[in-house]
Prior knowledge:
The chain has helices at residues 43-51, 93-103, 108-121, 137-149, 167-184, 195-201, 219-224, 229-234; strands at residues 4-13, 17-27, 32-36, 58-63, 66-67, 78-81, 155-159, 187-192, 204-209, 212-217, 241-245, 255-256, 268-272, 278-279, 290-301, 305-312, 318-324, 334-339, 344-348. It is α+β, with helices and mostly antiparallel strands.
Amino acid sequence: MADVVLNLVGKLYAGNIRAVSDVSFAVPDGGFCVLVGPSGCGKSTLLRMIAGLETVTDGEISIAGRVVNRIEPMHRDIAMVFQNYALYPHMSVYDNMAYGLRNRKTPEAEIAARVAEAARILELEPYLKRRPKQLSGGQRQRVAMGRAIVRKPQVFLFDEPLSNLDAKLRGQMRVEIKTLQRQLGVTSVYVTHDQLEAMTLADMLVVMNRGRIEQIGEPLYLYENPATIFVAEFIGAPPMNMIGLDPAVGIPAGLSGAESLPVPPTGAMLGIRPEHLHLDRGDGERGSRLRLELKIDAIEAVGAETYFYGHLGSTGPRLVVREAGRGVVPTDGARAFLADRAHIHLFDKASGRRIEM
């Protein structure tokens, strides 16, 4: 097994186009690191540099203590699982999984043993004689993973492997990938734009934006302690509610209890997650809570939860509230919601960075 270390890694394309800048992080041996961010943020480019499919312009990448900047992909001891499966349509499942080993002149007896073990782990034993066109999308993805497993690499790389699957199958495959990675204990780096995928899979989350790292840490820590406005809005579904605070203008209409917040002269953004807003039923101590009056525009009852959509003070920013259970509020009604100060976040409007309170 091996750790993966990136030290000030950058990528510059022709025409002075900067795709990745000064990226540094370390994935420990056996860790599961997920690179997440919007399209064009540099996450796939970074993964391809780790794989050796893109050259490194700046910095160093090391695997198991060995700098691999100038080492060919085949000699890095990594295995990559792609978005489009990259299976050979004319070959059986067995031959697809065995292909890489045969290229390495591995003895057939060892190939058979490795393929059999991978097929058992991935529950592909009944399909070894089939061709890819005879398989479902989830089964094809298992074959692609099996082809990586049989190589027994030091590192697994996943490039958005679930993006071609439907929502239900993506959920099932997330569980299978996480279970498999824990079972094998192989260091893994996984790229996705889906923040739910990132949150559920990662031991270590790297949030990227415009070629740079916004924040690194455990998924729940980032969710509860976003370092920037970008992370606050990107991690979480629905995203964090944001309310602008401008000292020159005063407290927005519909908001009370925010007078003592440490708002800088340049202004701030007040963040509250939808689940941290609760209906003010007038039956408790408001104390140091924030109170927000919303004009409700729409309600979504989804069984165990109810979502309220409304505008602060009727004309302010649009906010979302997520309440447990089934709430009933007229769609044209105005209601007040409360938020504990322990659950509010404050960000400098100019820099986008978190303000500690």
